[in-house]
Design brief:
4 helices; Fusion Protein Consisting Of Minor Coat Protein, Glycine Rich Linker, Tola, And A His Tag, Chain: A, Domain 2; two-stranded antiparallel sheet; about 20% strand; about 130 residues; alpha+beta; elongated
């Protein structure tokens, strides 16, 4: 009887159990981190895309010459507070001049507040692949 109990216990530990997860959280095992099936792309037609679009539009609006950067790219890491206040803007790579212009624009930009906690959890501290406007 003890052997069967131990076998069942070991199987449960190795396979995992049905996870308890917040809304929209995807995970296979109870101890896994949450993964959301949202890309956060500006083109997404959901609340993640709306937030990303608002951030990108406000950043572009703060650029002194937004259309001068057509075809340029910059990878950055942004940390935002839930009220939209920028905490960090860290350049990770890309066109040097475009990245510098974005860093200066980020200081002036008024980013939209996050209206959903799940969106904030995913996008409040995230890497952004930014492209210049045509």
């Amino acid at each position: 009887m003890i052997k069967i109990f131990l076998l069942v216990l070991m199987t449960t530990v190795l396979v995992g159990c049905t996870p308890l997860a917040p809304k929209d959280c995807r995970k296979a095992h109870a101890l896994d981190s949450c993964h959301y099936d949202r890309s956060g792309k500006v083109s997404d037609n959901d609340i993640y895309g709306e937030q990303a679009s608002g951030i990108k539009k406000n950043l572009d609006a703060a650029l002194t010459s937004p259309h001068a950067w057509d075809g340029k790219r910059c990878n950055v890491h942004m940390d935002l507070k839930i009220d939209g206040t920028l905490q960090n803007f860290i350049i990770k790579g890309g066109d040097k001049d475009y990245c510098h212009a974005l860093a200066e624009a980020a200081k002036r930009a008024k980013f939209p507040a996050f209206t959903d906690q799940h969106v904030y959890d995913v996008m409040g501290s995230a890497r952004w692949d930014l492209h210049g406007q045509p």
